[in-house]
Every structure is written in C-alpha cells, then in structure tokens.
Amino acid sequence: MMKTGIDISAYQGDIDFREVSRSGIDFVIIKSNYGANTADNFEKNYAGAKAAGLDCGAYVYSYALSESEAMLEAKACFQTLKYKKFEYPVFFDIEENKQFNLGKSKCSAIVKAFCETMEDAGYFVGIYS
What we know:
The chain contains 5 helices and 6 strands. The chain is α/β, with parallel strands linked by helices and about 130 residues long. Strands 1, 2, 3, 4, 5 and 6 form a 6-stranded mixed beta sheet that branches.
C-alpha cells in the first residue's frame, strides 16, 4: 500500500493538520532541529500532527562541517525528540554547499557520525539530501 507524506517546518506557517489529514496525507516529517537548535514551531507542529492522527517522523537540517559537529547535532536532536513517539525515521538533511565543498569522503563521514549516534540511541535514521 502506498502512503503519502510531506515534510514541514516553520516556513509553512500555521498548519491546519486536520485539513492535511483529510487531504489524503498519511504522515508528516517535521523539522525538529537546525544544527544544534530546536526548530521554530516543532512542538506546535508535532502536537498538531499527533492530534490529527498523522504518523510522524522528524528531520535535522545540518550545518555540521565535521564528525564531532554532526554528533553534537544528534545529541541536540535527542533532547528535542525526548518523550515523543515517531512512526517514521529521523532524517539527516545535508544540503549546504559548505558541506559538499568538503568532498565526498568528508560528507560521508559526517553522515555516518550523525546516523550512528542516532542509531546508538535507538532511533531509525535516513538521509535527505
């Protein structure tokens, strides 16, 4: 069975999650963090999506330029996601030119550091780029 989902952040403004649910959307992937900071509207978006019966995942928009920075972003993400239930993975969003300019090997190491840190904490992870 195919499911349809959307990613959301503060850029979408106030979201009517009941309308989202009625429109055939099955799940939302909510921006939880940008770097080591909690994303604007994360708590509101999570609560609204859950109240509307939507399944949820999360994503972290990364600014990490090293493995240690990626691990710090993962640890900040733990704090944001604490005590919440997710049916979908936590995605690592890597798309900054500063990151890509580091080269494939360095980007791969950054992604691996984030993903392993999250997996060690019991989360399923994915990559969004």
